[in-house]
Design brief:
The chain is an alpha/beta fold and 194 residues long. The protein is built from seven helices and five strands. The chain has helices at residues 13-17, 30-43, 57-70, 93-99, 101-109, 122-139, 151-162, and strands at residues 2-8, 48-53, 74-76, 144-149, 180-184. It has a five-stranded mixed β-sheet, sandwiched between helices. Strand 2, helix 3 (57-70) and strand 3 (74-76) form a beta-alpha-beta unit. The longest helix is centred in the last third of the chain and has 18 residues, at 122-139.
Length: 194
């Protein structure tokens, strides 16, 4: 059994502004740095052996703070990047709802298959994140693995690890830098959850 510690990056200014980040490479703010330190303290009682991180700065900085405190290696993997939101990136949530009501209705009707213009769908995120989860289960049996990533991507990961449909992704987005412990025996089933 592999134990996964899921950690969403610390807070950014765009989180505070309710601005869609997606794959845009934003930085942690002062609160985000403090949250990453607190996450490291919470993991101190655990026994992780490795950290896997998204390459985006807000996640990688969070991972680096944890790695420094726990003396762990970091492996960067692009499959942990946030969902690409294409033309929506950098936009305020309130503005997008007002400017693109038909797209938001399409997203509500089909949360799994929908993608913002020039973005990606939850199905695509599940394919890349699921392949990584299966590699981690194969390569780290009986270990504790920290995954530092992003809200939507971790919502998908949570669904895959729990065996729930990924249409529940948005209900499983974790708070910033709040470690969540999940266990998995064996590989995640990618078919049937999508």
């Amino acid at each position: 059994m592999t134990i996964f510690w899921l950690i969403r990056h610390g807070q950014t200014d765009w989180n505070l502004e309710n601005r869609f980040q997606g794959s845009t490479d934003t930085h942690l703010n002062a609160e985000g740095l403090r949250q990453a330190e607190a996450a490291a303290q919470k993991l101190n009682a655990a026994a992780p052996t490795v950290i896997y991180s998204s390459p985006l700065q807000r996640a990688h900085t969070t991972a680096q703070i944890i790695a420094d405190k726990l003396n762990l290696p970091i492996i960067t993997d692009p499959r942990l990047q946030e969902i690409a939101l294409g033309d929506w990136e950098g936009q305020l949530g309130a503005d997008l709802h007002r400017l693109y009501p038909e797209q938001f209705e399409a997203r509500r009707q089909d949360p799994v298959g929908f993608h913002a213009p020039n973005g990606e769908s939850l199905t695509e995120v599940a394919a890349r994140a699921g392949s990584l989860l299966n590699e981690l289960s194969d390569n780290h049996p009986e270990e504790e693995v920290v995954i530092v990533s992003h809200g939507v991507t971790l919502g998908v990961v949570h669904c895959l690890l729990e065996g729930t449909p990924i249409d529940q992704t948005y209900q499983n987005i974790p708070d910033n830098a709040s470690p969540l412990r999940l266990e998995r025996n064996g590989r995640v089933p990618l078919k049937g959850t999508l």
